[in-house]
Design goal:
The protein is of the alpha+beta class and 453 residues long. It contains 13 helices and 18 strands. It has two domains: 279 residues, 3-Layer(aba) Sandwich (Aminopeptidase); 135 residues, Alpha-Beta Plaits (2-Layer Sandwich), CATH 3.30.70. The longest helix has 19 residues.
Length: 453
């Protein structure tokens, strides 16, 4: 990485652009303005779009920029996000979370990889391509959309996208917000799961109660929540919610074959996550469980007393955060309705259930392996790495990709350079200089390849 690029990268990382935190709205706006100025120095015309205020809350701005190209040349839409996850828990960071620190060839900072680092490296590759064009050489039209809400659902951009069809219209949608295969082997993401999430709350008594005076009489919200959450799955790990899996589209034989070929072993996954990979349904492989099966996950449960020592109470209330990863054939609303119906039917005695903060998110999708765009990307990546690309059906989600695909009419191409050791969403997130250079090289090569089609 050259020093000028390192300086820009570090400047970008220092913005505390936690899009989900209303107190960081100013940081998000400053980050978006920095990116707008950076693109405008390349000749782009940029605009910051301000989403409508919802429920008294303002959302971070959306950056939309365009650089017109030659008539008849393809149009590429680049998507990325400048928001980052909260840095908590702060006491587990070995370096300040918003002070980029380079150590052993890696840059440690929140957003170093997800997604400031990946997107910025890709944009640097685009800059390399544009600056290297001979005078008069045809270039593609390039559109860039960068948002500040991806980590919390992309609500504003998803809502605005249909009204921006003309401005977003493109031939290909380029996203650098995913992982490479182990050993930094290139990977083309052939599918993503969708995601929805909500909060559920159980309430019983009108206050926390003395566990001696009222034990055996009053319902316990913490115990009730444990029972309700446990009811979502069968003993073999399969989902117990009636209707939740209706309509799921099974993968094709070739999709299953490639997913299994590039999936990690049980041993490798255990080493990666620090425990046996025992989640999901018994008898199904890692590739099946992560690539082609939906999930219902408990993201957190909060109830009663958790401080030092003991406080012998019966909690009056319990809260659980729930997310659902969805696969093609499921819709967010239908899946949520099935879960809500199940929960309402299994509320423990004496408890009142409320559902809050439902975020529909987006459904999952899979892309055809026969796509000419995939062949172009595979050839380009093979020129970068003789091993050629792996094809991956990713268990994660980028909810707005489906909305952008529908609004722009563009074919999505998701190629990223993340690795497990980057620790995204965790303390001590990092991105290696080698990964940055790969993402930058990919950015330059794919633009050159698109213009040679």
């Amino acid at each position: 990485m050259d020093e000028a690029t390192r300086k820009e990268y570090y400047e970008l990382l220092k913005f505390e652009s936690v899009g989900a935190d209303p107190l960081k709205l100013r940081d998000c706006a400053q980050c978006a303005a920095w990116l707008k100025a950076w693109l405008e120095r390349l000749g782009f015309k940029g605009e910051l779009l301000m989403p409508d205020v919802k429920d008294g809350k303002a959302a971070p701005p959306i950056l939309l920029a365009e650089l017109p190209g030659a008539e008849g040349a393809p149009t590429a839409l680049v998507y990325g996000h400048y928001d980052v996850q909260p840095p908590d828990p702060l006491d587990e960071w070995e370096t300040p979370p918003f002070e980029p620190t380079e150590k052993d060839g890696r840059v440690y900072c929140r957003g170093a990889q997800d997604d400031k680092g990946q997107t910025f490296a890709f944009l640097c590759g685009m800059r390399d391509y544009l600056s290297g064009l001979a005078e008069g050489a045809p270039r593609p039209t390039v559109k860039v959309v960068l948002e500040g809400q991806e980590e919390s659902g992309s609500a504003a951009l998803s809502e605005m996208a249909p009204g921006l069809r003309r401005r977003l219209a493109a031939d290909v949608l380029l996203v650098c917000d995913t992982h490479a295969a182990p050993g930094l082997r290139p990977a083309i993401i052939a599918g993503l799961r969708g995601v929805s999430h909500f909060t559920m709350r159980l309430t019983g008594a009108d206050r926390d109660l003395h566990s001696g005076e009222y034990g055996g009489i009053a319902p316990n919200a913490a115990q009730a929540m444990a029972e309700l959450v446990a009811s979502l799955h069968n003993p073999d790990g399969s989902i117990a919610v009636f209707g939740f899996s209706d309509g799921i589209e099974a993968p094709e034989h070739e999709e299953r074959r490639l997913a299994e070929a590039f999936a990690p072993t049980e041993e490798a996954m255990a080493a990666e996550i620090g425990c046996p990979p025992s989640g999901g349904q018994l008898g199904k492989t890692i590739a099946q469980r992560n690539s082609f099966e939906p999930t219902i996950e408990v993201n957190g449960i909060h109830s009663g007393y958790g401080g030092p020592g003991s406080k012998t109470v019966i909690p009056r209330e319990a809260v659980a955060k729930i997310s659902m990863r969805l696969v093609p054939g499921q819709t967010p609303r239908r899946a949520f309705d099935a879960v809500r119906t199940h929960l309402e039917a299994h509320v423990p005695r004496g408890m009142k259930l409320s559902i809050e903060d439902y975020t529909p998110g987006a459904g999952g999708f899979r892309l055809p392996l026969s796509s000419p765009l995939f062949r172009l990307a595979a050839d380009t990546l093979t020129a970068m790495d003789e091993r050629g690309p792996a094809f991956v059906w990713c268990g994660a989600s980028i909810p707005v990709v489906s909305a952008l695909r529908d609004a722009s009419g563009a074919a999505p191409l998701l190629v990223g350079w993340g690795q497990a050791e980057d620790r995204i969403h965790s303390p001590n997130e990092s991105y290696s200089l080698a990964q940055f250079d790969k993402a930058r090289e990919w950015g330059g090569r794919i633009f050159a390849a698109l213009c040679q089609r």
